Amino acid sequence: MMVEHRPALTVITHAALILGAAVLAFPIYVTFVASTHTLEAITKSFPLLPGGHLIENYLRALTVGPRDVGATVGTMMLNSLIMALGITCGKIFISLLAAFAIVYFRFRLRMVFFWMIFITLMLPVEVRILPTYKVAADLKLLDSYGGLIFPLIASATATFLFRQFFMTVPDELCEAHRIDGGGPMRFFFDILLPMSRTSIAALFVILFIYGWNQYLWPLLITSDQKYYTLLIGIKRMLDVGEGQAEWQIIMASTILAMLPPVLVVIFMQKQFIRGMTETEK
Amino acid sequence: MADVSIRNVTKRFGKTEIIHGVSCDIREGEFIVILGPSGCGKSTLLRLIAGLEEITSGEIAIDGRVVNRLEPAQRDIAMVFQNYALYPHMTVYRNMAYGLKIRRMPAAEVDRRVRAAAGILELSELLDRKPRQLSGGQRQRVAMGRCIVREPKVFLFDEPLSNLDAKLRVQMRMEIRKLHEELKITSIFVTHDQVEAMTLGDRLVVMDNGAAAQIGTPLEVYERPANLFVAGFIGSPAMNFLQAEVAADGRRLVLPDGLDVALPGAGVPARAGRRVILGVRPEHLEPNGGRADGIRLAVDHVELLGADTLVHGRCGSMALTVRLADVQRIDKHAVIVLHAPPEKLHLFDPETKARIEK
Predict the structure, then answer these.
(1) Does residue A225 carry a pLDDT above 70?
(2) Could A170 and B72 be called an inter-chain contact, meaning their C-beta atoms sit closer than 8 Å?
(3) B-chain residues within 8 Å CB-CB of A179?
């Protein structure tokens, strides 16, 4: 492709990109601005510049919590974090084992199981939410971390991804390992796991964000404020009925809710890109 | 070090039989090459010996112990794979040490063996590298190092040189031979390359279609091929085959173009008047220098290779190739009459394809 060096074109492309970036960033900026003012300041005439109540608002959100919710943002963040990490690690672990079984062991109905897993790809959580709720309730998982995490752990996507990766690992590697005298689990931990490192990192980023953003399931399964996740908390903050929602606290919570996924992406960006693009093993 | 005995081994995948009853006794310290075209079952046979595939019937014994039901790790063998199968995330050192660590060998002994093997294979400088930082030849050496440190009873090689470029292949071939002379470990080497086979093997097992077509030293296989397949497979350019008939006295062959060829010694009187296939290698034919008998060649084209000249043509309707020493100026469409020393002629039965002893 020709690379053109016309100044006018450069100006136009940059202007278009800046405009696009601004459109995307503006709501986040507004959220941030709102989280630094008092409630009166926001409700009267909306300010466009950050105010001086940043520390006050965030501290209140984290330690006291908004009215009528019954949990601090700190607690809810911790809950969200436990849930997101639980889902992420659980999904990765289960998927790795499932893919390992499907690719490396010949057992009865192997393909049936594979297709069963694969078909669940087409069923989102919402479709199977009633039976899942019934099962979780019967297992006494309502209002517990287990209830938040376990039903979301099974992952056809991750299993499928690892299966595809394992199938590219040459058979000879497994055979060489057999000749070296290692058993199957040893092969899994010593050879396959280290080789999957970059795929695991990439999946970690995707799944962490997926787990952090879970809304419907935690909403159903928790009624005790102790187990509220941040996303539910924000929703609850809005349900004030006749009163006035505390917008400055809600906005501060929103900014806080965005932070962990952003940090995960920033810190794991390198591994993420490598996991998505690297083919050489 | 150990002997390996393969007795009437068959292998079936589903309904198709891949190996049809191969038997072979491999002596202690011997270097055996299993040679054959692709799809002849040579790699499968090696994998049966390694224990990577289960044998359907028959028996394999290593050092007198039947290993049919043993896992690869219990057979005390080591194997070099075609694509080396190095663990990509481990350094050269850890690749070589891994098998020993699994066997819970003391760390000091592991270290001693790895360093000794690295010394032999000139890998000492590369112990901290990962496989992807190595060249093809170096990876190949690491794969051999991983086998050497185990000090196994038998080495198995599955076409280990076929991923290397031509020059490196020749070099590694000599290194493998040298290594074998140093370590004297019984080795089984699978290849489709006859030059590798001829240069490396103490004995060859020539495989055809899942069966051993001939087992013998490289020279035996070259000089006295047991059947048409071996005769055509060993040697390059391949042996010429001509339809012929044994004359009434049993001492001469009559070719379709009317010329005669003398047979050595007493000939084959028992076959007088019968049709046979005459095999003669391109390198054993020479211009006949005015004799009355010989093989008539109508030249189609000539290839000048420098060291020698290949002349391709026809004898009657049958293709014939001759290799003459040095550069020979031969016209296209010329007709030359060729002679081969009687003891260099091979006769085969057109029905059974087997060699007819003279």
Answers:
(1) yes
(2) no
(3) 50, 52, 72-73, 77-79, 99
Secondary structure (3-state) at B20: strand
What pLDDT was estimated at residue A281?
43
Shortest alpha-carbon distance between residue B78 and chain A (Å): 7
Interchain CB distance below 8 Å, A179 and B103: no
What domains are there in chain B, each with its CATH number? 4-232 (3.40.50.300), 238-356 (2.40.50.140)
Of B72, B83, B98, the CB nearest to A178: B72
Interchain contact, A172 vs B85, CB within 8 Å: yes
Domains of chain A: 61-277 (1.10.3720.10)
Tell which wins on pLDDT, B93 or B331: B93
Torsion angle defined by CA atoms of residues B114, B115, B119 and B120, in that order, rounded to the nearest 10 degrees:
-30
Give B208 to chain A, closest Cα distance, Å.
Answer: 25
Contact at CB, B89 and A197, closer than 8 angstroms: yes
Task: Choose among A173, A175, A197: nearest Cβ to B87.
Answer: A173
How far is the first Cα of chain B from the last one, in angstroms, to the nearest whole number? 40
Q: What is the DSSP-derived secondary structure letter of residue A69?
A: T
- How far is the C-alpha of B266 from the C-alpha of B257, rounded, in Å? 24
Q: Which residue of B has its CA nearest to A181?
A: B73
Strand partners, B22: B9
Rounded distance between C-alpha atoms, residue B32 and residue B188, angstroms: 5
Cα–Cα dist B207/A154, whole Å:
50
With tokens 């040095």, the residue in question is B326
Average model confidence (pLDDT) across chain A: 87
Q: With an 8 Å Cβ cutoff, is B15 touching chain A?
A: no
On chain A, the residues whose CB falls within 8 A of the CB of B91 are none
Q: Which residues, 6 or more positions from A150, have their beta carbon under 8 angstroms from its beta carbon? A: A90, A136, A141
Q: Which two tokens stand for residue B227?
A: 């059947």
Measured distance CA(B336)–CA(B317) in Å, rounded: 15
Convert the pLDDT of each residue in A110-140 to its tens digit: 889 888 888 877 777 788 888 889 999 999 9
B49 touches chain A (CB under 8 A): no
Residue A134 has a pLDDT of 92
B43 SS3 class? helix
Is a pLDDT exceeding 50 seen at residue A207?
Answer: yes
- Position A47 scores a pLDDT of 82
Give the separation between CA A174 and CA A166, rounded to whole angstroms.
11
| Run of H or E including A259 | helix A247-277
